[in-house]
What we know:
Chain A is mainly β. Helix content of chain A is 0%, strand content 57%. In chain A, strands 2, 4, 5, 9, 10 and 11 form a 6-stranded mixed sheet that branches. A 5-stranded antiparallel sheet of chain A has the order 1-3-8-7-6, with no helix packed on it. Chain A is globular. The model of chain A has no long low-confidence stretch (mean pLDDT 93). Chain B is mostly beta strands. Chain B has no helices and 11 strands. In chain B, strands 2, 4, 5, 6, 9, 10 and 11 form a 7-stranded mixed sheet that branches. Chain B has a 4-stranded antiparallel sheet with strand order 1-3-8-7, with no helix packed on it. In chain B, a hairpin with a 2-residue loop joins strand 7 (64-70) and strand 8. The chains are: A mainly beta, B mainly beta. The interface between A and B is medium-sized, with 28 and 32 residues.
Amino acid sequence: GENVEQHPSTLSVQEGDSAVIKCTYSDSASNYFPWYKQELGKRPQLIIDIRSNVGEKKDQRIAVTLNKTAKHFSLHITETQPEDSAVYFCAASPSSNFGNEKLTFGTGTRLTIIP
Amino acid sequence: DVKVTQSSRYLVKRTGEKVFLECVQDMDHENMFWYRQDPGLGLRLIYFSYDVKMKEKGDIPEGYSVSREKKERFSLILESASTNQTSMYLCASSQGLAGISYNEQFFGPGTRLTVL
């Protein structure tokens, strides 16, 4: 089955600086890579995702890059703000023609933004 | 707006008790999932269901069973609770439309279960 490794487990950055979280996956059949954000005491929520036919995707201060050859993908947050403090999870999934794909999650990164 | 609810936010049970955790979604989603979340281990899939009365094992099904009698409801059952099942349990659902891959998962608020 799929195995997703995520690094670092904790990350502290000064407000305004950039943060990068990296994930690697094992199954070459995986082609969907979402990122979920979980604020303290709240449920995980999707913040951005990327499909294997795209190398990079941006949404305001957040970007995700994918290197299928190396089997790794990364989350980049620029101009960090206090509300970016949360636990971030990467995940990987093979596609399914039946809509019943399941996600394999990484172990999470606790990001702390220092004011 | 998708809403996924779980029957309890906090639950305390004794070793050996049978425990039911319930999850309900109101968006007519096909797929439903049960995860447990432990520090340093991320979200691990216990069971999932892509149709009523259908279920598939996830990565850590041992000690758990599930039931999906109605489309909107997915129950996680601990037949005989043990202390190592103390954890945060998260339910999720996704649309699961055939021909549309990569369905976003929507999570419930979680149930923190303590087994004494």
